[in-house]
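Apologies for my clumsy wording, but are you able to produce some protein sequence, whichever is easiest, and the tokens describing how it folds?
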Amino acid sequence: MSLPVKLILASNSPRRKEILGGLKIPFTIKVKEVPEDFPEDLQREQIAEFLAAHKADAYLSDLAEDEAVITADTIVWLKDSVLNKPENLEEARQMLFRLSGNMHEVVTGVSIATKNHQEVFHDVSKVYFKTLTEQEIDFYLENFRPLDKAGAYGVQEFIGMIGIERIEGSYFNVMGLPIHLVYERLKALGVVPY
């Protein structure tokens, strides 16, 4: 299949790779280490969009005329504060206790950029957690990898399976990529042939 635009996913997230792969269009993965710092005055979707665009900046000078790069960043927003990736297991434990019994928002910012154009957008999903027990949290921390996930959990892993009572919005957004929105943008770029 020959497409007018060669697609690059700039992420080492296995979840984003799996989701984008579901579209059955060819893409390559390129990863650069980009600091995930953001101005302190940013709120909610501003943080996610800023980080997605910031990640894209690292790739723009290397892009060929026929390439497009997708970058994304997912944050967890709880009671007017952001929960990023935890630095250690104790911070992960504290995050899960804060999420327990509460509704939080998962916001994913996405950038799709070519040499001459960049579009940045976001999606929001509301996630409702039951009250988690200390034993459930400890089991999750001992058996899974919370340190590479915003809010210290993966929706598709144990704590998401047993803890999430309902989601309002896109499940795939909570996983890390609002594929329904990405698909529409890729169609407009001519990357999706169907």
Observations:
- Residues 6-189 form a domain with the Maf protein fold (CATH 3.90.950.10).
